[in-house]
Amino acid sequence: MSRKRPPKKQVRRRARRRFPWSLLWKLLAVLLLVAAVVLVWMDAQVRQRFDAHQWQLPARVYAQPVELYSGRVLEWQHLEQMLALLRYRNAASAPMPGSYQRQGGTVLLHTRAFRDSDGGEPARQLRLTLANGRIQKVAAADGSTLPVARLEPLQVGSIHPGHSQDRILVRLGDTPQLLHDMLLAVEDRGFYEHHGVSPRGLARAVWSNLRSGGVSQGGSTLTQQLVKNFYLSQRRTIGRKLMELPMAVLLELHYEKEQILETYLNEVYLGQDGARAIHGMGLAAQFYFGRALEELEPHQLALLVGMLKGPSYYDPRRNPERAERRRNVVLTVAHEQGLLSERDYGIALERPLDVVPKGAGALYAFPAFIDLVRRQLARDYPAEALSSEGLQIHSTLDVLAQLAAEDALARTLRQRDADGSQQLNGAVVITAPDQGDVLAIVGDRTPRSAGFNRALDALRPIGSLAKPMVVLTALEQPKRFSLATIINDEPLEVSMPNGQVWAPKNVDNRSMGPMPMAEALARSRNQAMARLGMDVGLQPIIATLQRLGVQGNIRPYPSLILGSHNMTPFEVAVMYQPLATGGFRTPLRAITDVLDLHGTPLARYPVSADPVVQEAPAYLTQWAMVKVMSEGTGRAAYNTLPHDLMVAGKTGTSDGLRDAWFAGFSGNHLAVVWIGRDDNQPAGVAGSSAALPVWTQVMAKLPQRSLRMDPPVDVEWVWMEPDGKTRSDAGCDGAVLYPMWTPSIPGVLSACAAARQTPAGEERRGWLRRLFD
């Protein structure tokens, strides 16, 4: 008996019921496997990036801590400028670090704590008494006198990473509690309750997005925002949101809330400074307010929190009214949550934004000096290390010396630009000779300009600045020359290989005839110095320049004697350094040490000194340059400087009055000044009338120590006849006293000197006879 088959429709219906379930389970298994793989990948990504925290941080450059002590030269103007750069605020009784109050001739300072290679200083109140351009007293809060106090190092620049992100890392424990509370009150009130995702916030966001027909609201927790900034793009898409949710949960599974909050404070984007992206609350506090994050007041913290909603939209510099409204919303939320009292809330609402002008902070203060730091660091560190590892660069910059140099150059150029054309420009370099520290560099009449750095790059003929090197070379030949050697200041002609004739002239177009070498230098007589240089020889002069640190090809032309060689102001400072140190070449340094992100020393730049000039000729050259200041072309400096301050220097003027130079030094400062026009056209300036006034003003504003002119053991004081060849005696007519290197002292005595010299025994008997008579 045959079995009856079911109808075909029924068979097809059963087949349809069985087939989808099998495929569905297979698809579900595949999806679960893919989801597991994706979650494992996400988990690895979350932990790897968060654990590494490989932010690319710029190297930061700091000046020397400013030392304050009784007797230091310091005018209120420069103290005020320095405090402005350090972002100290004027507040009654100076209640907190980073504040001050002026009370007549007394300044109450509340300094900030800092650490450096010398141990650092605690935060404390100081009372400075200023009078007559000097510090009269430094006292602690209790009135006790302090021998010295130090202000924190000023950050003067940074070397930014290649991707243009910048941040100042902060620790959660060092940031204001009010900032945390405001942030959570506005951005994520349930931060400490949720596990990375807020269901309520998501539901609110989904409803808002459905109503708007797009992605208009994110509903993100603070953890989700961190994931978006840290791992994902800023684009608002469903795909990004689907990635963001599980990554936020994974982040919360692995890390404490405090770690997440600290990372958020350092990562969040808060604006743009040209090509530089401002990340983190630490840098934003400096960028917008010029102050450390821990020093901000409630209205300033509220602005930073408010800007998180849209840094460009609420930019306080471009949209101040919009930014103020947003700030006030944050203040209101903080007040409603009990974070601000009624009184503090009212005060904060009335405060202005207090945003500093863009580019007004210390990070933009001294671009010419930062240029030198970059060049010196480039010799020892690869570019990626300088721009990504957060190195701390301790420099030699003296803020007060820098301010004095800027003021002196600007004031002199304004006075000379009577017609307002501003065609003149200039440069100043200041060093500490013994240490080789570069204390200040000005590369433009507008010192905050980051353009052409004349101090390092303006190659100009040095004029009479070369003459001390000619004298030094001559004095190194003691059998032929001494400071008493007579040189003829008369016209001369030197035939050149190309058939031309070199015939130098004096500035006054006059010739003064025979004169001692020391006087020829003091009066800067071109014809006399040209004769001396030709007699000494061009090759020995070139060798001297090279020993003093002059680089490059020095052509053996006679005009070299009078300074035809092109040099930058910085190179002139290098050349003059051995003259200031008594014959030791100390390489100029802009850096003292380099520390890593955590303050561990990586490299030190110690002081080194190599003898390049013998002690006796170095001393004699210094003595001749002292005469330049006391009797010669530099004597106008003593209209300003104290008459008991012994300094040495030399004026320089190039052909056609194109370049005005002055280079000179005291016992502790060397300064070089150049003034001229960028187009190399005649500027109508001379060293004594344009560069010397700048040099004098700079030196007058710095604490100075006189040159010590104790002669070396092989230098003797000798009376000489006017002919420069015969020894004389103090009582002989026309006798002049010179310091002389022992090998150069002539053995020939004048008749007067021979008659006055008596054996020691005869002299004693003559003294006794006069006594008894």
Quickly give the CATH architecture of the largest domain: 3-Layer(aba) Sandwich
- Could you say which structural class the secondary elements and strand pairing correspond to? alpha+beta
- Strand order within the widest beta sheet: 9-1-13-23-24
- For the CA atoms, what is the radius of gyration? 37 Å
What's the name of the CATH homologous superfamily of the largest domain?
DD-peptidase/beta-lactamase superfamily
Give the CA-based shape.
elongated
Number of structurally distinct domains? 5
Percent of residues in beta strands: 15-25%
CATH top level of the largest domain is Alpha Beta
CATH topology of the largest domain: Beta-lactamase
How many β-strands, per DSSP? 30
Mean model confidence by pLDDT: 84
Q: Supply the number of helical segments.
A: 24
Largest sheet data: 5 strands, mixed
